[in-house]
Specification:
- This protein is of the alpha/beta class.
- It folds into 2 domains: about 150 residues, Aspartate Aminotransferase, domain 1 (Alpha-Beta Complex), CATH 3.90.1150.10; about 220 residues, Type I PLP-dependent aspartate aminotransferase-like (Major domain) (Aspartate Aminotransferase, domain 2, 3-Layer(aba) Sandwich).
- About 40% of the residues lie in helices and about 10% in strands.
- The chain is built from 14 helices and 12 strands.
- Helix 6 links the parallel strand 3 and strand 4.
- Helix 2 packs parallel to helix 13, helix 5 runs parallel beside helix 6 and helix 5 packs across helix 10.
- The longest helix has 22 residues.
- The structure holds pyridoxal-5'-phosphate.
- Pyridoxal-5'-phosphate binds next to helix 5.
Length: about 400
């Protein structure tokens, strides 16, 4: 009998690890590698938020708190949902965890029984399927298409729902594509969900504030108030506030679900870092003008990368609405051979050869459940992006 749990055997190692490991090995050997894999802003946490963290330490706010967050932060989260999304939540409907990741994991752990299905649009953020499997559920994928700008349709959602469906996970703007659903597109999905009262909605709004060209962010419970009771609205400070390392995420929803999530957290990690909670309070309540400044930079970089990708023969790259990723298709390059002798028979082969031959690290599409594509994170300097795009162009042009 294996020492390791049967549950663990349901989960695959992160497919992104292979590329990251190879990138690190090459760097260690002194190779000049440009990393476009990171899922985090390259900006520092704004000064006023850092100060709030330092103040918390100096004021002795360094002890345990309530397992799912201090009252002040829960109040600020309620105010944020009202201000940004027009949603009314009370503090007992709010949970604060160690990053958005723990919030999503708690919710799945608190609700899934063996055989329960979780509908996940593909391409997806890499953790949704494996968290579902760890919690004993079954991921059900609905594949978006490039033609539909990487968004699923109401008919596709309808066809995926069964008696066993417990959750529909929704993420807009999306990691890895940056695709954002307009209000009408989301309404199409919520109309379907309205007809299936046993399906709950887990919306991951992590990239809410990272949207460009006037894209209007909206979230399911806002678009369809009839779904409010069975929607868990998840968000966090990691991305928009440049606080990935502080590890604060939060959610609001049904008070009984929130209590169940609290129970799991109280028996596992307990409260998220106290100092980070006080810093997150400042993030939500303090000035937000830096977000627009950062977005102007992100938009410029997005346009730079999209233009460079579309100028390459064999690559098609839609313009995303938000986040800091683009997801070009390499359908036009499959079957070719690289100068180094690699047959490009998959996006994984493409990403590996690109890294080995040109020193550019991207994440291949299979990791996100939709091939043949790759993900570029443009949360890095314009110079690095220009250099990387030039290398990708040279690599693609050298394929025969
Ligand atoms: N959801 C999405 C879509 C993400 O891209 C990420 C981070 O990459 C998370 C959740 C997790 O965020 P956190 O760092 O707050 O755990």
């Amino acid at each position: 009998m294996s020492f390791l749990s049967a549950t663990l055997s349901r989960v695959k190692p992160s497919p992104t690890v292979a590329v990251t490991t190879l990138a690190n090995e090459l760097k260690a050997k002194g190779r000049d590698v440009i990393g476009l894999g990171a899922g985090e802003p390259d900006f520092d946490t704004p000064a006023h938020i850092r100060e709030a963290g330092k103040r918390a330490i100096d004021e002795g706010k360094t002890r345990y708190t309530a397992p799912d967050g201090i009252a002040e932060l829960k109040e600020a989260i309620c105010a944020k949902f009202k201000r940004d999304n027009g949603l009314d939540y009370s503090p007992e409907q709010v949970s604060v965890g160690t990053g958005g990741k723990q919030i999503l994991y708690n919710a799945l752990m608190a609700t899934l029984n063996p055989g329960d299905e979780v509908i996940i649009p593909a391409p997806y953020w890499v953790s949704y399927p494996d968290m579902t499997l760890l919690a004993g559920g079954e991921p059900v994928f609905v594949e978006a298409t490039l033609e539909n700008a990487f968004k699923i349709t109401p008919d596709q959602l309808e066809a995926a729902i069964t008696d066993r469906t417990k959750w529909f996970i929704f993420n807009s703007p999306s990691n890895p594509t940056g695709a954002g659903y307009t209000r009408d597109e989301l309404k199409g999905l919520t109309d379907v969900l309205k007809r299936h009262p046993h399906v709950w909605i887990m919306t991951d709004d992590m990239y809410e504030h990272l949207a460009y060209d006037g894209f209007e962010f909206c979230t399911p419970a806002q678009v369809e108030p009839a779904l409010y009771d069975r929607t868990l609205t998840c968000n966090g400070v990691s991305k928009a506030y440049c606080m990935t390392g502080w590890r604060i995420g939060y959610a609001a929803g049904d008070a009984k679900l929130i209590a169940a999530m609290r129970k799991i957290q109280s028996q596992s990690t307990s409260n998220p870092c106290t100092i980070s909670q006080w810093a997150a309070l400042e993030a939500l309540n303090g000035p937000h003008d830096f977000i627009a400044e950062h977005n102007a930079v992100f938009k410029r970089r997005r346009d730079l990368v999209v233009e460079a990708m579309n100028a390459i023969d064999g690559i098609t790259c839609p313009t995303p609405d938000g986040a800091f990723y683009v997801y070009p298709s390499i359908a036009g390059l499959i079957g070719k051979t690289s100068a180094g002798g690699t047959t490009i028979d998959s996006d994984e082969a493409f990403a590996t050869a690109l890294l080995e031959e040109k020193g550019v690290a991207v994440v291949f599409g299979a990791a996100f459940g939709l091939s043949p594509c790759f993900r570029i994170s443009y949360a890095t300097s314009d110079d690095a992006l220009k250099e990387a795009c030039g290398r990708i162009r040279d690599f693609c042009n050298s394929l025969s």
